[in-house]
Amino acid sequence: MRSLSDPLSDPREGGHPFQFGLRSLLLLIFVSALLFGFIGRQLRLHREENQAIDELLKVEAYVDFESTDATWWEKLLGETELRSAHRVVLYADRVTDKHLEQVARLRDLRYLYIRASGVTDAGIAHLAHLRHLRVLRLRYLDATDAALEQLKELDCLEELELLETSVTEEGVRDLQQARPGLTIHFN
Q: What three-state secondary structure class fits 103?
């Protein structure tokens, strides 16, 4: 039997109790990296959402959000308050497609009302990322049937209102065929 001071001794045969094999250490490092990567991603997404809310408030948007205290690990990394927007109302002529890029960063958004003549199909395309959006009201936009193609991707969308847009009846019919459960208000 080898002595404990023998560097060639097998750790399973009476070695130090906290001695790990190389595989175990690599596995620990890998799992730690995954965990910290996930935490870092979540923090980045929260920061982006907070920045988007701040940008929308600058154009006098109404943003209904839930504010929660940060968890212990978020506080450890410098976050003190997390906001999650559920409802946004954009009601100004100075709202443009650029502002809809900010709206697309609100991952938990459920209700969106836009009344702004500066919004086009390109702006509506950003909304395809809002996977939780249930109600979308679009008024006085320069949106056309091309925008409706983007809205087909919103699986959770339950109600769509299109008033004073450039959308045609044919475009609405196509959307209704693609999404039969969607309630559409159109003039």
A: helix
